[in-house]
Write a structure and sequence with these properties.
This protein has 356 residues and is of the alpha+beta class. It has eleven helices and nine strands. It has a nine-stranded antiparallel sheet with strand order 4-3-2-1-9-8-7-6-5. β2 and β3 form a beta hairpin. The longest helix has 85 residues.
Length: 356
């Protein structure tokens, strides 16, 4: 109870005190009336009065008592209302507390489930990183990491050191880094590595989305993206390209063969649900002498879509805005354009657009 509510309640007279006061005043008033009748004219004289006179006397006599009990009743009712209001406030407060407790319990349950899943994803992505490390070779065709070293690393991995291979991939002093291997070579240098990278991206991206469901302040997402696993994911995303980039498409999305004619030229009005609310922009595709070009118009700012690739009805590109690189993957289905924008912290926006 607040100080204001407490003070307002204590200022109201108590019910027992009001009833006692009413009884005392009523008794005194009636006794005074009796004394008045007896000592003024006597009972016989009062009884001999006409009915109208007696009625007028009684009406005037009891009117103050009626007003007194009306006032007392109002005070009692006001106090009861104040008590009921306070009880309702307390009930609402208890309900809010119960809701908060239930929400906190549900959040802890989702976090507990997430950490169990995260452990499995750490092991899986650690395996995939190990496959990539094992396949790396120097310019001379030698293994970047020897068989003996790989055996030792796999033993550490089996003991639960799932960061061992991601740490090797992100270590600037690693053998393959000194050999001059670029991240594009490391993650997309061969078809097999590209497929492994695509599986890694899909798994870790799914983990980020699960983290968001149980992360009330972004701490979990920031933490997992700063681990060696997250740093590998960021490097993969930074240099991602087809066909590995199609792993970012919704699992329910399908796109046509590259040989099929798809009409994607023109301007599309995009409506998106982003991490910060709804947004709208326009995306344009056009054919020029230098090839296909595309751009985004948002808030009177035109931003080109870089590294544009179109495979059948699937579209890939990078949009750099406000210092952030957004990975765009989408599919064109008849008159609709559907897809998402990815950043390091997972999906930034899902969008759908119609041709203007």
């Amino acid at each position: 109870m607040s100080d204001k509510d407490h003070n307002s309640k204590t200022k109201l007279p108590s019910r027992n005190w009001l009833l006692g006061l009413g009884v005392v005043l009523t008794s005194v008033w009636i006794l005074g009336g009796l004394v008045y009748i007896v000592f003024l004219d006597g009972w016989m004289s009062f009884v001999d009065e006409s009915a109208d006179a007696i009625g007028g006397f009684l009406e005037g006599f009891f009117a103050p008592l009626a007003f007194l009990w009306l006032v007392i009743g109002l005070f009692i009712q006001q106090r009861e209302l104040a008590s009921n209001t306070e009880a309702l406030k307390q009930t609402n407060l208890n309900s809010e507390r119960q809701t908060e407790v239930l929400a906190a319990t549900e959040l802890r349950a989702r976090q507990s489930a997430f950490f169990q899943i995260a452990e499995n994803v750490r092991r899986q992505t650690g395996n995939l990183a190990g496959v990539i490390v094992r396949s790396l070779e120097t310019e001379q065709g030698e293994q970047a990491v020897s068989d003996a070293e790989m055996i030792g690393h796999w033993e550490e991995h089996q003991r639960g050191q799932y960061e061992i291979f991601p740490a090797i991939l992100t270590d600037p002093s690693a053998v393959f880094a000194n050999a001059g291997l670029h991240p594009i070579d490391i993650y997309y240098g061969t078809e097999e590595r590209g497929q492994t990278t695509a599986e890694y991206v899909k798994s870790f991206r799914g983990l980020i989305e699960l983290a968001r469901d149980c992360d009330d302040d972004g701490t979990i997402v920031r933490t997992i993206t700063q681990t060696p696993h997250g740093q590998v994911y960021n490097a993969m995303l930074e240099h991602i390209r087809p066909p590995a980039c199609w792993a970012l498409l919704d699992s329910t999305s399908t796109f046509s063969s590259v040989n099929e004619e798809i009409d994607f030229f023109g301007t599309w009005h995009i409506r998106a649900q982003t991490l910060y609310g709804e947004q709208e922009w326009y995306t344009t595709f056009r054919e020029t002498e230098s090839g296909i070009e595309s751009e985004v118009l948002l808030d009177d700012t035109v931003t080109p879509i870089q590294d544009l690739v179109i495979d059948g009805s699937a579209v890939f590109g990078r949009v750099v805005a406000a210092g952030t690189t957004f990975i765009m993957t989408c599919t064109i289905e008849s008159t609709l354009l559907r897809g998402q924008l990815d950043i390091r912290e997972g999906i930034f926006a899902r969008f759908e657009g119609a041709r203007v």
